[in-house]
Amino acid sequence: MSIFLARRFLTFLITLSGASVIIFLLLEVLPGDPALTMLGVDAPDSAVVAIRLELGLDRPAAVRYAAWIAGLFHGEMGLSYVYKVPVTELIGQRLQVTLPLAIGSMALATLAALSLGIFAATNHNRIGDYGVMGFSQLGLAIPDFWFGILLIILFAVILHWLPSGGFAGWDDGIWRGARSLLLPVFTLSLSLTAVMTRVTRSAVLEVAREDFVRTARAKGLSRRAALWRHVLRNALVPVLTIGGVLVATVLTGTLVIENVFSLPGVGKLIFDAISNRDLMVVKNVVLLFAAIVVVVNFMVDILYAMVDPRIRIQT
Amino acid sequence: MALLSVADLTVELQTSRGMAPAVRGVSFELENGGTLGIVGESGCGKSITALAIMGLLPDGARTTGRVELDGTDLLRLDEDARCQIRGNRIAMIFQEPMTSLNPVHRIGRQIAEPLRLHRGLRGANARDEVLRLLDRVGLPDPARRIDAYPHQMSGGQRQRVMIAMALSCAPDILLADEPTTALDVTIQGQILDLINELVDDLDMGLILISHDLGVIGETTENIAVMYGGTVVEQGATSSLFAHLAHPYSQGLFAAIPRLGEARTTPLRTIPGTVPELADLPPGCAFADRCAKATDVCWRQAPAMELTGPDHRTACHHLEVVA
Amino acid sequence: MIGLVLTGTMIALALVSLVWTPHSPTEIVIAERLKLPSASHWFGTDQFGRDILSMIMAGAQTSIVVGMIAVSLGAAVGISLGLWAAARRGWVEDMIMRLSDLNMAFPVILIAILLTAGWGPGITNAILALGIYNISIFARQVRGAGIAMWEREFVLAARAAGKGNLAITVEHILPNIISIIVVQATISFAIAILAEAALSYLGVGSQPPDASWGRMLSESQDYIFLTPIIAVWPGLAIVLSVLGLNLIGDGLRDLVDPRMARRR
Questions:
Q1: Rounded to a whole number, what is the distance in Å from the CA of A223 to chain B's nearest CA?
Q2: Interface of A with C in 209-238 (CB under 8 A)
Q3: Domain identity same for B133 and B31
Q4: Quick one: closest CA in A to B149, which residue?
Q5: Is the pLDDT at B106 greater than 80, yes or no?
Q6: Is C109 in contact with C52 (CB distance < 8 Å)?
Q7: What residues contact residue B26 under an 8 Å CB cut-off, 6+ apart?
């Protein structure tokens, strides 16, 4: 168990540092002079010199990289070149929108997918199964931003029930904020639900054919009891895997959905930063997202070992 | 009245080519504490017969006939009532001990499950009983083994766990479907001895299913030989071995390798293969592999005829016995 | 079957648009702006009076070209790495798998954001981002299937005949896993169409004046209170194309692997 953990942790560290190097290379080294990237090629020389001094861009790349990483260990991400405020502060603010959106969508999708997947599997090859599978095929094919636009047309333009976008903030009570996240969460969970439903269904079907399920039934357990006690936990491994993969989908999904509903989240921040050529913001936000993906996958590995005792002895 | 009475049991299974009869008109009885061996090649319907008695056939299977336990027809019971009987009055152990235990639960919990379900035992009571059962099936160091996971045990140990699980509610009948086939030869004998000993001690009825006529002959009082979904010969073991009447049974007997035979003696085999369920001929199922087959065998299925004391055979070409 | 029809329609639309569209997809006629569907404009017109049907036909071209290039790029690199990992195992495999872990830490949109922030927006960045993203997907699939193949008897036989790793890979491994690759390519193509639309919607994909379904949607969103219908057509085009490809992918997979057919 501990060897397994140690190995996974090592991989995790390597991946994380690799990610930071790649981000740094792509943003500050490969395109050429970062000062020019931020100001444009035709910027006056005086401005270029000024920004070099201000951001210390005259130092060699390796030194700048080391300074960036050292700063991260102290919880510092530097100043946003455009807003002149610490990037950590900017991200912190925006996460108040992005995190609830991501977590809400994941939670809703997990609930919906487990119910739909189990329902479809227990009604294998019957009308309910076909219905669920048809829905999930459609869910896979619908671009989430288009689904969001359709929801806006239905609920804001036609029915006038909900706002077409914008965020009311958490200050006027949780309900006001949650209300503006309702459609976004629903939008983002569609494709997630579709994917997880398919995986849940096939995992349950697969496990239900195993010999030990027949053993459970031979003990006198009803179909339902055998499903809950013996099938589901074994079916959880593939569902967990896809859950880990989908975290990346959710994160990048928030970037898109925040755009659809004009929500002031991290997604808005990063696209503004791109138009403003605010490299400090871009580099740290991208690293944050990549780090979340890596951390979640590390946690999924540990969860595997908890769910399936056999994995503990393997590497 | 017999403890278990199976009469004219027919099972049709769903296949890609439509419904196919896997068991056709099987009948036998098992007395209280009696032992019956069902023998035949794989695909002859012996496992399906066992699953039909348990009520655990695959989805879409159609069953007709009667399976009476103490006079109650199990086939007419609803699912809840059948769950009450499974694991409680009739228990079953399977061929594959490697895959028949749930890999994510400790074995103690898996053995305790029927105890909780049928006897209402929980917590420490259930654990004590599990320890007693593990000890009873001869698993070394039960106190440590109770918290093991299946993957930490050998095949023989897992089969002992399966037996402990089956015994847990002191069933009237134990169904053992090829319980030793997947095990090492050295372990096979131990497990068979254990089953024999438990059946004697607990006065359980036993239905032992095997492809090995030798194993069956040593273990059970009665034998039913199955081929192509039907019983072709059945009766008391002593009576059967005194005079195997059906050509298929004779072939099976000849195929048992014997100690002491010269190594150069070729293994005897029955020519041909088991027919596909869906293509069973209208007459005797064994006709196309039988040396004695004549026109009548292809046209008409033979009926069971008395071929000795407590011994009946279904064949058109029985040798007349005095 | 439905999949073939849908995908066929999409390809046909793209091909026809090369030589003919009902109107020019870029011609701006302010007098005709935001018209509902009519006999002359079947799907209506957008905020500049451009014919939506013509734009969708031209947009199909963009989707197909982006998808084709991105998937080929990802497949070419990914398959080579996967085959190499399966053939060599050991440190080569470890290195390739760690690289693929790293690759997986960057979803398509993050790669596109990095490229755009460094080099400015453009369709090339979108294609590159999608291509890079596909590398690890193909590499992992091919490695898994390849390792399984290496354990088969015919490989042992080839080895016994004195064939080297490269020869075995080309003659025995690749032909036996090609079906898996084709299935993956179909599905990757579908994902590429979705992703290209999303990137263009966000402004980090294709740029004006190229027609793109994603950008049509982002532009239409400003006018949903006036003419919501213009936000419907490009979305439908995406859904039907992706659905078609996914259905083909599933169908192929069932053909290739009957065990999977039972599961879904």
A1: 9
A2: none
A3: no
A4: A309
A5: yes
A6: no
A7: B6, B8, B9, B10, B45, B49, B65, B224, B226, B229, B230, B231
Q: Which residue of A has its CA nearest to C190?
A: A141
Mean pLDDT for the stretch of residues C236-263: 73
> pLDDT by residue (tens digit) across B117-167?
888 888 888 899 999 999 888 888 888 889 998 888 988 899 999 999 998
Contacts of A306 in chain B (CB under 8 A): none
**Boundary-marking domain end, from B116, B136, B170:** B170
Rounded Cα distance, C192 and C75, in Å = 13
B272 and B196: one domain?
yes
Closest CA to C40 of C30, C52, C27, C55: C52
Q: Which of A11, A142, A145 sits opposite C239 (nearest CB)?
A: A142
Q: For residue B142, how many other CB atoms are within 10 A of its CB?
A: 18
**Chain A residues close to B104, C-beta within 8 Å:** 233-234, 307-309
* Burial class, A21, CB count within 10 angstroms (exposed 0-12 / middle 13-18 / buried 19+): middle
Chain B: give the shortest CA distance to residue A212, in Å. 4
Contact present, C and B (at least 3 Cβ pairs less than 8 Å) = no
Between B91, B102, B165, which is nearest A230 by CB? B102
**Could A202 and C263 be called an inter-chain contact, meaning their C-beta atoms sit closer than 8 Å?**
yes
Residue contact C239–A251, C-beta within 8 A: no
Question: How would CATH label the architecture of C65-263?
Answer: Orthogonal Bundle (1.10)
Please state the rounded mean pLDDT for residues B84-101.
88
**Phi, psi (rounded to 5 degrees) for B306:** -70, 125
Rounded to a whole number, what is the distance in Å from the CA of A9 to chain B's nearest CA?
A: 24
pLDDT, one tens digit per residue, over A204-233 is: 988 888 888 989 988 888 888 888 888 988
**Residue B145 near residue B154, CB atoms below 8 Å:** no
Q: pLDDT value at position C260?
A: 46
Domains of chain C by residue range: 65-263
Whether the predicted pLDDT of C32 surpasses 70: no
Mutate to test the interface with B, among A124, A215, A229, A231 (most CBs of B within 10 A): A215
**Phi and psi torsions of A306, nearest 5°:** -75, -40
Domain that holds residue B285: 4-89+171-321
Chosen domain end from B170, B186, B217? B170
| pTM (two decimals) | 0.80
What's A157's domain CATH number? 1.10.3720.10
- What CATH number is attached to the domain comprising B227? 3.40.50.300
Please report where in the chains the tokens 């990757």 appear, as a residue.
C188
**Count of CB contacts below 8 A, A vs B?**
74
List, as ranges, residues 240-279 from A with C-beta within 8 Å of C: 248-249, 251-252, 255-256, 259-260, 270-271, 273-274, 277, 279
Q: What is the DSSP string of B55-72?
A: T-PPTT-EEEEEEEETTE
pLDDT for C264: 38
Domain count, chain A: 1
Buried b (16+ CB within 10 A) or exposed e, A134-161: ebbbebbbbbbbbbbbbbbbebbeeeee
Query: Which residues are within 8 A (CB) of A197 and not within 5 positions of it... i.e. 6 or more apart?
Result: A112, A113, A116, A117, A120, A132, A135, A136, A139
Reported as a single tens digit per residue, the pLDDT across A281-307 is: 888 888 888 888 888 888 887 887 777
Interchain proximity C117–A273, CB inside 8 Å: yes
| Chain C interface mutation, best of A149, A199, A278, A297, highest count of C Cβ atoms under 10 Å | A149
Helices (runs of H) and strands (runs of E) counted in chain A: 14, 0
Q: How many CB atoms lie within 10 A of CB B68?
A: 18
Average pLDDT over residues C45-68: 75
The confidence score (pLDDT) of residue B49 equals 92
Interface of A with C in 82-101 (CB under 8 A): none
